[in-house]
Design brief:
174 residues; alpha/beta; Glutaredoxin; 2 domains; two-stranded antiparallel ribbon
Length: 174
């Protein structure tokens, strides 16, 4: 092999290694879509097979949350979101949850033990979670009456609940 070919191969190996390193080891941001952007439109089915679209909630403040039954923080978040749904639904607020599980039976069983008053939609193919570029659970988006994302939250604890509730009150007053 000529010297140029050896040099080219070494250079290409270095470039490929660098790209792989960047892709694998550099963490992605929790949200690549965020405040000030329009919420991607979608329609998903709930556990009863009814289609629910984000567009149908235009004019309401929406807390869109992505979760899974195996996620400990999600299990903590759902009852608190249910409190918010019950408290502010009459003021123009809706919680819309998207479960990323692939089994209706698994989600239905979970909800029998942990009932909530808001819609639970199934994203079996991860189409909606991909559109919102969700990279961790739970992930919540507060969407304004105009369909624009106003705030995002990754993870959950009682402090986050206080911030979310305060933000919802502020958004409802506008």
């Amino acid at each position: 092999m000529s010297g140029r070919l050896v040099y080219f191969r070494k250079k290409m190996k270095f470039i490929i290694f660098t790209l792989l390193f960047a892709i694998i080891l550099v963490p992605a941001p929790a949200f690549a879509i965020g405040p000030g952007e329009a919420a991607p439109p979608f329609s998903l089915q709930d556990l009863n097979g009814n289609a629910v679209s984000l567009k149908s909630l235009r004019g309401r403040v929406v807390c869109l949350t992505f979760w899974a039954t195996w996620c400990p923080s999600c299990k903590e978040e759902l009852p608190d979101l249910d409190v918010l749904q019950r408290k502010y639904a009459g003021n123009g607020f809706t919680v819309l949850s998207v479960c990323v599980e692939s089994s209706n039976a698994l989600v239905a069983n979970f909800l029998r033990k942990n009932p909530v008053s808001f819609s639970v939609l199934l994203d079996k193919e991860s189409v909606v979670s991909d559109a919102f570029r969700v990279s961790g659970l739970p992930a919540s988006f507060l969407i304004g009456k105009d369909g624009m994302i106003r705030h995002t939250y990754s993870g959950y604890d009682k402090e986050t609940f206080t911030v979310i509730e305060r933000t919802i009150i502020e958004m409802l007053s506008k």
